[in-house]
């Protein structure tokens, strides 16, 4: 597989691993989303000043308001974070 195909496969596997923990297999509960963020994006949580910010981030992931994070919502988060990190390099 190419690097991009590998990256896509890792995103899908990561989401599926955490979504399989409880509730529906195709969505993340708040607890699953929090666990994913803590284990897979620890640097992101370090910059959060307090638990309220983390809770706000989790709530913001749920674009459609169904109290769960589906794969599309997860990918939007990862894409936004990737763009933010890419732009920090100072290249134009």
Task: Walk me through the topology.
Blueprint: H1 3-19, E1 27-28, H2 30-40, H3 42-47, H4 51-61, E2 69-70, H5 71-87
Antiparallel strand pairs: 1-2
Helix pairs in contact: 1-2
Molecular structure report:
It is a single chain. The protein is mainly alpha-helical and 92 residues long. It has one domain: EF-hand (Recoverin, domain 1). The chain has helices at residues 3-19, 30-40, 42-47, 51-61, 71-87, and strands spanning 27-28, 69-70. The protein has a two-stranded antiparallel ribbon. The chain is globular, with a radius of gyration of 14 Å. The mean pLDDT is 83.
Provide the number of structural domains.
1
CATH topology grouping: Recoverin, domain 1
Helix content: 55-70%
Classified in CATH, the superfamily is: EF-hand
Q: What proportion of the residues form beta strands (DSSP E)?
A: under 5%
Tell me, briefly, the overall form: globular
Count every helix, treating DSSP H or I runs of 4 or more residues as helices: 5
**Average of pLDDT:** 83
Number of strands: 2
Round the Cα radius of gyration to an integer and report it.
Answer: 14 Å
CATH architecture term: Orthogonal Bundle
Low-confidence stretches: none
Pairing-aware structural class of the strands and helices? mainly alpha
Order of strands in the sheet with most strands: 1-2
Task: Let me know the largest β-sheet.
Answer: 2 strands, antiparallel
CATH top-level class: Mainly Alpha
Distance between the termini: 30 Å
Order of helical and strand elements: HEHHHEH
């Amino acid at each position: 597989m190419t690097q991009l195909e590998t990256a896509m496969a890792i995103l899908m596997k990561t989401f599926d691993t955490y979504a399989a923990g409880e509730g529906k297999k195709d969505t993340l509960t708040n607890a699953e989303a929090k666990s994913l963020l803590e284990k897979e994006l620890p640097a992101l949580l370090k910059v959060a000043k307090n638990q309220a910010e983390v809770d706000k981030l989790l709530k913001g992931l749920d674009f459609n308001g169904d109290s769960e994070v589906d794969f599309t919502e997860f990918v939007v988060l990862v894409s936004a974070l990737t763009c933010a990190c890419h732009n920090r390099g100072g290249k134009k």
